[in-house]
């Protein structure tokens, strides 16, 4: 089943409501507004995901754009283009220690400069998920707050019209443990980024 993210209709309703009267006056304009409204609804779609039995999963739906070591930790980033689902999901079970918003620039999310973009960091202590805005994405909407427990694959929030989501993996993960590669397409909450033993092993 596919739903839509909270706040979808604030973007989709105006062109959809204007489409009917506009069609009477100028059919091409009305059609364009209708297609725009439907495109917004499609953009903010929120399909159900089924996490695998084990493993740390991708936080976002898109293309892997970052795999790098940061000190003794490993970061994996996923770039979302306009056709990807923009709902961010928890890579692993965890307890939210803090949710911090950091102002910044609005560089293209696929560039190295995007590390300095506006972002929201969800810190689980053992790992961290970052929502990173892009040049067009100016709205980051976290659904969780400090003190909440989150299950693997659960929704953490979404980015309106954007852009990149990273997971800073636990300290025990080495870069050789990463099960995806740059340029690979992944699905939020389903594609395994790092293999872990099943719960009953």
UniProtKB/TrEMBL annotation:
Keyword flag Repressor:
no
> Biological process (GO) annotations?
phospholipid biosynthetic process
Q: Does the keyword Lyase apply?
A: yes
One GO molecular-function annotation for this sequence?
phosphatidylserine decarboxylase activity
Query: What are the TM regions of this chain, as residue ranges?
Result: 16-44
Q: Which keywords are on file for this protein?
A: Cell membrane, Decarboxylase, Lipid biosynthesis, Lipid metabolism, Lyase, Membrane, Phospholipid biosynthesis, Phospholipid metabolism, Pyruvate, Transmembrane, Transmembrane helix, Zymogen
InterPro entries the UniProt entry points to: PS_Dcarbxylase (IPR003817), PSD-A (IPR033175)
- UniProt xrefs under NCBIfam families: anchor_synt_D, PRK05305.2-3
* PANTHER family (UniProt xref): ARCHAETIDYLSERINE DECARBOXYLASE PROENZYME-RELATED (PTHR35809:SF1)
Record protein name field: Phosphatidylserine decarboxylase
